[in-house]
Amino acid sequence: MSTALCQIGDLDDVKEELVGIRRHLHQHPELSYEEVDTAKLVGDRLEGWGYTVTRHIGGNGLVATLRAGTSTRSIGVRADMDALPIHEQTGLSYASAHHGKMHACGHDGHTTMLMAAALQLSRTRNFDGTVYLVFQPAEEAGFNSGAEQMIKDGLFERFPMDAIFGMHNHPGVATGTFMFRAGPFMAACDTVKIKVLGKGSHAARPQLGIDPLMSAASLVMALQTVVSRNIDPMETAVVTVGSLHAGHAANVIPEYATLELSVRSFKPEVRQLLEQRICALVHSHVEGYGATAEIDYIHGYPVLVNSDAETEFARQIAIELVGEEQVISPFGPIAGSEDFAYYLQQRPGCFVRVGNGAGKPMLHNAHYDFNDENVTIGGAYWTRLVERYLAVSAA
Known about the structure:
The chain is α/β, with parallel strands linked by helices. It has helices at residues 15-27, 36-48, 107-124, 146-152, 155-158, 212-230, 268-287, 308-322, 340-346, 373-389; strands spanning 52-57, 61-68, 74-80, 129-136, 164-170, 178-179, 183-186, 188-197, 201-202, 237-246, 252-253, 256-265, 292-298, 304-306, 327-328, 349-355. The protein contains ten helices and 16 strands. The strands form four sheets. An eight-stranded mixed β-sheet has the order 1-2-4-3-5-16-6-15, sandwiched between helices. A four-stranded antiparallel β-sheet has the order 10-12-8-13, covered by helices on one side. A two-stranded antiparallel sheet has the order 7-14. 48% of the residues are buried.
C-alpha cells in the first residue's frame, strides 16, 4: 500500500498498455445496448486486478467494487462505453473495423481513463472505504438510456455511494485542462418528431392537393420564433430542426413530410414552455396551409446539475494535480446533454470536462479521435479524487 497521492507520472509504466486498450476499443466500437465485447474486456481486466465485478446491470453495464481499510464511506465513478452510428474518416491505423460505427464521442477514452484509475487503485490501495467503478452502456441512446436502466436495476441500492463523479472530454480546449461548473451545467434535451399530413397530387395541378412540403418548409422558419419571441432573452434555449424529408420525385406533391427537432433548455419551466409553444405552433401553422400534423414529443435527458460541495472538491483535486492555470471554473453552461444527469438526481456529485486538444475535431464528427495523453491524466485524476475522498486517517 502506498501513502503518496497519485501523480500523472505514476502511470507512465503502464501508459503503453492503457493506450493499447484505448485503441483496441476504438477499433471495435459497439452501439448503445450492443456493448457485449467492451463490457467483457473491461470486466475481465478488472477481475484480474482484484475487483469484484457485477455484470449485466441495466443491460451491458457493470460495477467493479474494491474495498480497503475499515471505513463505511463509499464513492462512485462512472464511464460510458457505447459508440455512435457514424462512418469513421480518420484514416488512423486503429480506425473502426465496424462499418458505420465509430467512437466519435470519446467513450473509448472515458472507459480507459477509468480503467487506468482502477489499475492504479488496485496497486496502491491508498484509500479507506469502498470504490464503485461504474461502466455504463447506452449513454448515446437519447432516452431510455443506460443511466436510467442501471438505476432501475437497483444501482444505488446494490452499490450505495455517498457521491458519484463522471467526466467527458472537451475538444477545443488544451489537453489536460479541467473544467467545472456548479449548478446547471449541461442542458435538458428533448426530441420532437413531426409528421405533416397533406394531400398528394400532380406537381402541375397543385390546386388539387395540399402540399405538406410547403407547410413543413415554412414551419422550419416559424419554429425559430419560439426561442426568439416566447423565451425570456435572459434564459437559454435551443430549437434545432435537424431533419426534413418529403417526397421522392420532382413532379409529385407528396402525401406527407416529416421533421425532427432537438430542443434544449436549462430550467424545467423553460422546458415546459418550449413544449407548449412548439406543439401549439405546429398545429396552428400547418392548418393555415390546410394540412394537419401529428407530433411525438419525446422527453430526453434532464438538466445536469452539479452539486456545490462535490464540484468544489473535484475542482481542488484538479488544481492539486495539474495546477490552477489548467483549471477553468466556472465553465459553461454547455448546450449538450448527458444522461449522467439521472445519477445526480439520486446522489450528490460532479460531472467534469477535460480538454481534448485545441483545434481538434469536435465530438460526433467522423474525424474525431480521443487524445491518448488524457488516458494517464484522467486516470491519475480519478485515482487522486478517490484517495482524497476516502482519505486514510492519520491515526
